[in-house]
């Protein structure tokens, strides 16, 4: 066999460019149960040592059934890299430029979370576009626990031509 291997072609799928993406396109992120180990790991990573995140008895005195997840821990479940989105856009991705979230319901140790990104807006520019995704997370009971958005800057396959100056105007 005389096949030539090219590492640039070793990818999950052909990359999509800004023009290939569609409103309503969904990108599932694998579900994940929020274990005690994830809680402890996030506490170490964030430095947040409020007892609501690591003291079960404190949580119960506050009316919670167990350890309460940190909001950013829940938001981290929407990381696009945990799903197929970065494989779909491949090398057309320039960067992750913005994120927001509203925390709608508590998340406890033992809950399983189901994140989803859905393209909600496509803002074209001349050579790139901004892809805005609605980020949602539901728990195992179907309760939505997070509503947010992510914005990504993505290259266009065919940039719009540079505008030409009319006589008497700057280019």
- DSSP E strands, number: 6
Taken together, the total number of domains comes to 1
Straight-line distance between termini? 54 Å
The gyration radius over C-alpha positions equals 21 Å
Percent of sequence in beta strands: 25-35%
Structural class by SSE content: alpha+beta
CATH architecture name: Roll
What percent of residues adopt helix (DSSP H or I)? 10-25%
Shape: elongated
Give descriptors for this structure.
171 residues, alpha+beta, Thiol Ester Dehydrase, Chain A, 6-stranded antiparallel β-sheet, 6 strands, 16% helix, 31% strand, elongated
Q: What does this protein look like?
A:
The protein is α+β, with helices and mostly antiparallel strands and 171 residues long. It has a single domain, classed as Roll (Thiol Ester Dehydrase, Chain A). The chain is 16% helix and 31% strand. It has 4 helices and 6 strands. The radius of gyration is 21 Å and the shape is elongated. The model has no long low-confidence stretch (mean pLDDT 91).
């Amino acid at each position: 066999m005389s096949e030539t291997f090219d590492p640039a072609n070793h990818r999950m799928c052909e990359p999509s460019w800004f023009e290939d993406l569609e409103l309503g396109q969904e990108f599932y992120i694998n579900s994940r149960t929020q274990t005690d180990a994830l809680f402890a790991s996030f506490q170490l990573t964030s430095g947040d040592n409020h007892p609501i995140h690591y003291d079960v008895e404190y949580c119960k005195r506050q009316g919670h059934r167990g350890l309460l997840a940190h909001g950013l821990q829940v938001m981290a479940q929407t990381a696009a890299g945990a799903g197929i989105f970065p494989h779909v856009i491949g090398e057309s991705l320039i960067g992750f430029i913005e994120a927001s979230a509203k925390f709608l319901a508590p998340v406890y140790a033992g809950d399983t979370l189901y994140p989803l990104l859905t393209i909600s807006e496509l803002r074209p520019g001349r050579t790139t576009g901004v892809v805005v995704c609605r980020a949602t997370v539901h728990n195992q009971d179907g309760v939505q626990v997070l509503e947010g958005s992510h914005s990504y800057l993505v290259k266009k396959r065919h940039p719009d031509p540079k505008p030409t100056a009319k006589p008497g105007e700057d280019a």
